[in-house]
Structure formats: C-alpha cells, structure tokens
Amino acid sequence: AQRVTQPEKLLSVFKGAPVELKCNYSYSGSPELFWYVQYSRQRLQLLLRHISRESIKGFTADLNKGETSFHLKKPFAQEEDSAMYYCALSGGFSGSARQLTFGSGTQLTVLP
Amino acid sequence: DAGVTQSPTHLIKTRGQQVTLRCSPKSGHDTVSWYQQALGQGPQFIFQYYEEEERQRGNFPDRFSGHQFPNYSSELNVNALLLGDSALYLCASSLLSDTQYFGPGTRLTVL
C-alpha cells in the first residue's frame, strides 16, 4: 500500500525566513513524488516533481529514499507563498493507470 | 485553452438521490482521473478512465461509477447518496501517464 504523511497541518514563518514542509512516504517500489500547491480560490496545480529536479518559484525538494522523505524547501519565504501544499506519490507506471496518493496537506502562512 | 473544466460548480442533493458530475479534459489529454476531497483532507483517488474504459480504481464502493466519451470528456455518477459523500470532487486530466492537471472541482453537499 502507498501512503503519504505530512505531519504539519499548519506552518507559519516570517517573510525572508527559510521554510521546510515535511513529507514522508511509504511505498515498496520506486515511487514518483510530487508537490502540488493550491493558492486561495485557485485550483490545485503542480509545483514540482522529483524526476525533473527543477527549482520552481525558489522551491526545491530532494527525494531521500533512505529516509523515505520528500521535503519541500525554500531559503527565503515570500508572502505570496502562502497557500496549501500537498505532497503526492505515484506508484509508477502501470499500463495507463497512474493514481496519485496525496497527503493531508500543510497550510503555509508567510507573515509580513 | 481553458484547461480542465468541471460542471456544475456546486450541487445540493438529499440522501438517497443520484448525482452526475461532468469533466472536460485539457486540450490534447486523453486520460481522466477523479478524486474526492473531504474537508481538511487531501484528494483521494476514485478511478481513472482511458480509452473509454475504467483502468484503475481506488477504495470506493460500486455506488461510484463513471464513463468516458469518445471526445475524452468524462462523467462521475454517484448513486444512493450518503451524508458522507459530501465533498469536493476533482477531475484531473493527463496525456496517458504524464502530469495530471486539475479542474476547479464540484462541491457536492448531501443533506
């Protein structure tokens, strides 16, 4: 079974401070990990995926298979980063199916 | 391209009724997935459609069924509604197994 855990429901940081949103997963095979973000009154959108190794809006995430973690980090938080963040796992390609398993989300608030 | 669209935006039903939700995928996408998001929770996978067939299903009862049309649009049907079915229903489209793009969702309230 695949499972994603985001231990923090709420996280507040001050503008300019570093931020880390934690994500741990459970999966027996080789998963693909994603971070999705939902800004206020907007739809869920992909922030980044581990296979692309990109930095989007200053955010990075490294897959640590030993610790089964995929924490999201940004060195200097901005007020516009305030949003709900979801970590998600895909159990790899299986025919045409590729279901996503989501964590329960972390609401990030960046204070001025 | 408007991206993934869903209708209706909101819906109120009573227990025991049936409901149909609709989804139009992003242009060029052929795969549609449905998710249920209860309040305070992350989205939970219901099922996925590709080539007009259900390809994978999450842990949802048979009261939840779906359909995909030749133009790749999709419907989610829920029969015998329960109070616990109240949630935001999200549709996501993709090109086969590539990145999923989400619609704005349909908010279903069961009274």
Provide structural commentary.
The complex is a heterodimer of chains A (112) and B (111). Chain A is mostly beta strands. Chain A has no helices and 11 strands. Chain A has strands at 3-5, 10-14, 19-21, 24-26, 32-38, 45-49, 60-61, 72-74, 83-90, 100-102, 106-111. In chain A, the strands form 3 sheets. In chain A, strands 2, 5, 6, 9, 10 and 11 form a 6-stranded mixed beta sheet that branches. Chain A has a 3-stranded antiparallel beta sheet with strand order 3-8-7, with no helix packed on it. In chain A, strand 5 and strand 6 form a beta hairpin. Chain A is globular and about 40 Å long. The termini of chain A are far apart. Chain B is mainly β. Chain B is built from no helices and 11 strands. In chain B, strands 2, 4, 5, 6, 9, 10 and 11 form a 7-stranded mixed beta sheet that branches. Chain B has a 4-stranded antiparallel beta sheet with strand order 1-3-8-7, with no helix packed on it. In chain B, a hairpin with a 6-residue loop joins strand 9 and strand 10 (101-102). The mean pLDDT of chain B is 94. The interface between A and B is medium-sized, with 23 and 29 residues.
What's the helix and strand layout?
The complex is a heterodimer of chains A (112) and B (111).
Chain A: E1 3-5, E2 10-14, E3 19-21, E4 24-26, E5 32-38, E6 45-49, E7 60-61, E8 72-74, E9 83-90, E10 100-102, E11 106-111
Parallel strand pairs in A: 2-11
Antiparallel strand pairs in A: 1-4, 3-8, 5-6, 5-9, 7-8, 9-10, 9-11
Chain B: E1 5-7, E2 10-13, E3 19-24, E4 31-37, E5 44-50, E6 53-57, E7 64-68, E8 74-78, E9 87-94, E10 101-102, E11 106-110
Structural class of chain A: mainly beta
Radius of gyration of chain B equals 13 Å
Average per-residue pLDDT of chain B, rounded, comes to 94
Count of helical regions of chain B: 0
> What distance lies between the first and last C-alpha atoms of chain B, to the nearest angstrom?
36 Å
Taken in chain order, the helices and strands of chain B follow as EEEEEEEEEEE
- What multimeric state do the chains show? heterodimer
Describe the main β-sheet of chain A briefly.
6 strands, mixed
